[in-house]
Amino acid sequence: MPELPEVETTRRGIEPLVANKVVEQVYVYNGSLRWPVPQELISLLPGQQVNAVRRRSKYLLFDFSSGTMIVHLGMTGHLRVDSLKAEKRKHDHVEIVFTDGTALRYNDPRRFGSILWTSNDPLQHIRLSTLGPEPFDRHFNASYLHKLSRHRKVAVKPFLMDAHVVVGVGNIYASEALYRARIAPARPAGKVSKAAYERLIQAVTIILSEAISAGGTTIKDFANSEGKPGYFTQELRVYGRAGQKCKACDALVKQVKLGQRSTFYCPNCQK
User: Fold this and answer.
1) How confident is the model at residue 16 (pLDDT cuts 50, 70, 90)?
2) How many CB atoms lie within 10 A of CB 271?
3) Which residues are catalytic?
C-alpha cells in the first residue's frame, strides 16, 4: 500500500501538471472502487479549475471552486497525467479531461482506492476528521506520544501505526523508525520512556523526509506519477531483511507478526 512518502511523491508530481487547468469532461469507466465514485462529478467538474492539490494523511485533496475531490490510492492505485492521444490502460477507471488536451487518469487494478467529493471543508469529512497529526506537525512530539501512550498495553509499533495517533507512518516506515530509535517493536507503548519517544520522533521525521526525497519505496506496485519506482528501498535497514545480518551488528534480523502485520527488527540493537 502506498504510504505517506509515496502519496506525497504523487502529489508533488501531479500538482504542477494539473494546477490551474480547467476541466472539460469527466469519464467514469468503472465507479466500483472501495466506495462508489460519485456520479455527480460527471456534471459538476466541467468548467471548474483545479486550484491546488494538497495532501492529508494518505489522501490527496484536489481543490475546485465548488468543493474538493478526495482521492485515496488504496493498495494499487496511481494517478498519471497523459496526452489525450496516449492510449488508455487496462484498469483506468476514471478520467478527467482538461481543455488543454491532457487528462488525469486514475488506475487501480485491485480497486481498493477511492474517489470522493465534498462541497464542505474536506478536513471535516468523515474519512479525515478523526485523523491524528501529521508527522511533520509541531504537535507530533515526544510529550504528545508519551502522554497518549501512558497505561497503553498495545505494542509500540501498532501504536505508532494508528492513524488516530499520527498519520502516514505505515508498516515499512514504522519498522525502520523503531530500528533507528533502538526501540523493540513489541515493547508496550506505555513502557516507552519520553527519552525513547524523543529518538522515535526524530527517526520518523528523518526517515519520511529521506523517503520523500528518494521518491518513496517500491515493494510491489508503487510507481510515481511518471511511472518510476521509489528508490528508498535501497535504504531499508531491517524491513524485508529477515535472516540477514543487521547493518549495525552481527545479529540476524528477525521477523514477527504484530497487529497482523509483518514486523522486522534487530534483537540486539532494539530493546
Assistant:
1) very high
2) 10
3) 2-3, 58, 261
